[in-house]
Design a protein that fits this description.
Layout: E1 4-7, E2 21-24, H1 25-28, H2 33-45, H3 47-50, E3 54-59, H4 65-78, E4 83-91, H5 94-103, E5 108-112, E6 124-130, H6 139-151, E7 154-157, E8 171-177, E9 180-187, H7 191-200, H8 203-211, E10 221-224, H9 230-241, E11 250-251, H10 272-280, E12 286-290, E13 297-301, E14 306-307, H11 309-319, H12 324-329, E15 333-337, H13 343-351, E16 354-358, H14 366-370, E17 376-379, E18 383-386, H15 394-408, H16 412-423, E19 425-436, H17 438-453, E20 461-464, E21 467-480, E22 487-496, E23 501-506, E24 514-524, H18 532-547, H19 549-553, E25 560-561
Parallel strand pairs: 3-4, 3-5, 4-9, 10-11, 10-12, 15-16, 15-17
Antiparallel strand pairs: 1-7, 2-6, 5-6, 8-9, 12-13, 13-14, 17-18, 19-24, 19-25, 20-21, 21-22, 22-23, 23-24
Helix pairs in contact: 2-4, 2-6, 11-13
Bound molecules: alpha-D-glucose-1-phosphate-6-vanadate and cobalt (II) ion.
Length: 562
């Protein structure tokens, strides 16, 4: 087979966001669109790295994955890649890709997903590149990819390479392209990942918890894959390894290319169906859901007692020593993204661990992990993970929670209450305004930046429903990576004297329009058992007033509250 050079012209807007390039499927379907972006990944990596390399390819199986994989196979072969390792049918969760890159020591991976965004022909597709440590490409790599997309003139492909149904059957297929061997290996998507989990956790104990023993009744879980990619792993781990019932302990575990027309996003809004099931059936002790590509998780207890991701991170930090992986490797430091509530900071302080605050997006944790300074981290957006890989990991988070429950022999709710009584509680909520007019959203952010820049802003007191908050500090959060000194500037934050915070930022994962996120966080030392939305109401109102969001966007209410 011989490769050819195809002339092309740049497309606008091929700028990777928080987590890769995400657009509507029909955009990726435009002639040359996907080819251009894939070629720019290779161009940004450079010939030296790409020639003779091995890459992992796979994703959440959403609509257009197979077409994209066929394009990647042809372009990779023509660019001198020696081998692609691809999940069967194109399936690999994001954590599984990260693990394979590390285990097999390869150059990187191409992840085909738009994560929690809906899928199907009318919805979203995405392409993300992960580097050799298994983590999302850092800013300097995605910036380089973007620069190439603005100037691309041609791409290389091998049009005659027969890809039809190539990824349907396990096996190794060798082609001769331009006189060199090009190998496609189609692998079982779960073997390596299941082995990793078996290594990290004590599966005997977890099995005893889920099945019950002579002296203890079963701990009933309801695990919801939301028709996303985790179904494959949930069946292998929870059903086959840990003995959960395929009928009553798991649901929606067959990956669908349109996720059954739901948002595969584990939160109280989009996973309401699971929440209702756990609420109605008091037999369930824990409910959990994942997003489309398997890196997010939501945990709820009996009667759907909700665990905020910020609290989840703090509880895990406080109890890591019951997990074999941490007994063996030790616990180094903790980290959270800036908007994530600071509950984990209190744990770090008590345990004497290093604590890092990074911008939104998992790519900022990688350097710290590689430097051995970070063991556990999380984001308020339902992301939790550790240094076992370089992505957040939904299934890992649930297994970690089950390990703690087994070890402490306590319910989810009691574990949380005990934690709050020890550390106090960070009440947290996030308001999302999806698909706003982009200009209006930019104007609003500009307004907030101007306002906080006024010399009179610090010291100003805002009052709502009888509660007053005085501004201590306000800035555009900027982060200097302690390992490579790169700088990221991302979100506007207003810090109040009592430690409460308001944060404003624009999402970088949407595929159309702009999504405005407002994060509201308030710490209470003793009042730990109130309703979050009641406790935060005054601060929320102040947040809306400061931003003038209604005036700018016309929105009366958020699309989603988490
Ligand atoms: C969102 C979340 C962020 C997360 C990112 C990717 O980004 O806020 O915390 O890392 O999604 O998650 P943004 O820019 O829309 O706020 V995933 O599971 O969509 O890869
Ligand atoms: Co995801």
């Amino acid at each position: 087979l011989t490769s050819v050079v195809v002339p092309t012209t740049p497309f606008e807007g091929q700028k990777p966001g928080t987590s890769g390039l995400r657009k509507k499927v029909k955009v990726f379907m435009e002639k040359h669109y996907t080819e251009n972006f894939v070629q720019c990944i290779f161009d940004a990596l450079g010939e030296d790295k790409v020639k003779g390399s091995t890459l992992i390819v796979g994703g959440d199986g959403r609509y257009f994955s197979k077409q994209a994989i066929n394009i990647i196979i042809r372009l990779a072969s023509a660019n001198g890649v020696a081998k692609l390792i691809i999940g069967q049918l194109g399936i690999l969760s994001t954590p599984a890709v990260s693990n394979l890159i590390r285990q097999l020591n390869v150059l990187g991976g191409i992840v085909l997903t738009a994560s929690h965004n809906p899928g199907g022909i009318r919805h979203d597709f995405g392409i993300k590149y992960n580097i050799e440590n298994g983590g999302p490409a850092p800013d300097h790599v995605t910036d380089a990819i973007y620069e190439h997309t603005k100037n691309i003139k041609e791409y290389r492909t091998t049009p005659k390479l027969e890809t039809d149904r190539l990824i349907d059957v396990l096996g190794t297929y060798t082609f001769n392209v331009d006189g060199k061997d090009f190998v496609v290996e189609v692998i079982d998507p779960s073997i390596e990942y299941v082995a990793l989990m078996r290594d990290i956790f004590d599966f005997h104990k977890l099995r005893a918890l889920i099945r019950g023993t002579d002296t203890k009744p079963p701990f009933n879980v309801l695990i919801d894959s939301m028709n996303g990619v985790t179904g494959v792993y949930v069946r292998r781990i929870f059903v086959e390894e840990l003995g959960a019932s395929p009928d009553s302990n798991v649901r929606r575990i067959v990956p669908l290319d349109n996720f059954g027309e739901i948002h595969p996003d584990p939160n109280l809004t989009y996973a309401k169906d699971l929440v209702d099931k756990v609420k109605d059936n008091c037999e369930y002790h824990l409910g959990a859901a994942f997003d489309g590509d398997g890196d997010r998780n939501m945990i709820i207890g009996k009667h759907a007692f909700f665990v905020t991701p910020s609290d989840s991170l703090a509880v895990l930090a406080n109890n890591l020593e019951c997990i074999p992986y941490f007994q063996k490797n030790g616990v180094h430091g903790f980290a959270r993204s800036m908007p994530t509530a600071a509950a984990v900071d209190r744990v770090a302080e008590k345990l004497g661990k290093e604590m890092f605050e990074v911008p939104t997006g998992w790519k900022y944790f990688g350097n710290l992990m590689d430097a051995g300074r970070l063991s556990l981290c999380g984001e308020e957006s339902f992301g939790t993970g550790s240094d076992h890989i370089r992505e957040k990991d939904g299934i890992w988070a649930v297994l970690a929670w089950l390990s703690i429950i087994e070890h402490k022999n306590m319910s989810v709710e009691d574990i949380l209450k005990e934690h709050w009584h020890t550390y106090g509680r960070n009440y947290f909520t996030r308001y999302d305004y999806e698909e706003c007019d982009t200009d209006a959203a930019n104007l609003m952010m500009h307004h907030v930046e101007q306002l906080i820049g006024c010399s009179s802003f610090v010291g100003k007191t805002y009052t709502s429903s009888g509660k007053s908050y005085t501004v201590r500090k306000a800035d555009n959060f900027s982060y200097v990576d302690p390992i490579d000194n790169s700088v990221a500037k991302k979100s506007v934050r207003v810090l109040f004297e009592d430690g409460s915070r308001l944060i404003y930022r624009l999402s970088g994962t949407g595929s159309s329009g702009a999504t405005i996120r407002i994060y509201i966080d308030s710490y209470e030392k003793d009042n730990v058992l109130s309703e979050a939305q009641d406790t935060l109401k005054p601060l929320v109102e102040i947040g809306l007033e400061i931003s003038q969001i209604k005036k700018f966007t016309g929105r009366d209410a958020p699309t989603v509250i988490t």
